[in-house]
Structures are given as structure tokens and as C-alpha cells.
Predict the 3D structure of the following.
Amino acid sequence: MAYTARDYGNLVGMGGFSETLLKNHFTLYQGYVANTNKLLDSLAAMLKEGKVGTPEYAELKRRLGFEFNGMRLHEYYFENLGGKGAIDKLGRLGKKLAEDFGGYEDWERDFKGTAAMRGIGWTILYQDNITGRLINQWINEHETGHLAGGIPILVLDVFEHAFMIDYGLKRADYIEAFFKNVNWDKVDSRLK
Ligand SMILES: [Fe+2]
């Protein structure tokens, strides 16, 4: 039941993202898939060997949130790219963003503001699975700050590896390039 890295080669050629940057990013993603498999195998072996409760077991358990989320968040991220970047503000998601944030532009300002925060991690537009409310959330590294049960609707990688090759320290320019390539149909389809 090992995880398999998905192929996002279709994204090569999209505006604002060099082939070098994307290919490096795919390689990094493949590393998270490999490490997730490795960790799960090691933990399963330790269970059989009676090593539950050892410091080694505890450290691997802690590490799983980093590797697994590093894998899965990249999949959300690459899969919400490759579009034309134009949201239908009168569509299902456009209307809901306006409703929950007091206007589409307010949502976008909040999302971009979250993405521009100092530090490495992710910005995720989450939907609360209980009430349906939309919330922009900052994730530290890959595993800290997730909303329990929340559905990731739009996922933006703001680790430096996601933009430095093309943009240096100009994170805001990268965020603009990201918005130009969002696949809003895909994003809308994640909405509950
Ligand atoms: Fe990344």
C-alpha cells in the first residue's frame, strides 16, 4: 500500500514558473513520498519487533506529520495550478468567498497577507467541515496549524524553494504568479 508520486509534468511551461524551478520542486515532492513510505514501513516493523514505547519509535511517529503533510500538501498545491487564474465571482466558490469574508477582494487580501507572513510554510484556504465556513490559515512548515477536519480548498506553498530560483526574495511577485495560474475549477470542486 505504498504511496506513489504523481506526475505534474503538465505544469511545465506555465507562465511565471521556470522549468528549473518546477523540476526541482517535483524532485523535492518525490522525496516526501519516499520518506512517507519509509517512515510507515519502519513504524510497522518496530510494532512487530516490540519497539513501541522506545524513543526511536516516538521520534519516527513525530516525524510522520512532517513527511506525510509534505507529500499531500504538494499534491493539493500542484493540482490547484495549471489553470487560467480567473475566478468566476458569481460561481459557487466566488459567492461563498464574498459571503464569508465580506467581499471577494477582502478574501484575496487576507489570503495574500497570510501568504506574505514571515516564515516557511503554507497558506491554505480551509473549509470547516462542520459549519462550511471558509478560513485562511497559516501552516508552519508542513504540520503545524492545520484545522481539525478542515477541507483544504486552495493550497499555496510559501517555502523558499517554491519561488527563490525565479523570484529571489520577492515573495509577493511569486504570489501574483501563483494567482495567475490557479485552476479555479479544481478549487471549486473541493468545496463541500
Ligand atoms: Fe514545496
The mean pLDDT is 97. DSSP finds seven helices and three strands in the chain. The helical segments are 19-48, 55-79, 92-101, 104-115, 164-167, 171-180, 184-189. Residues 25 and 162 are 7 Å apart (CA to CA).
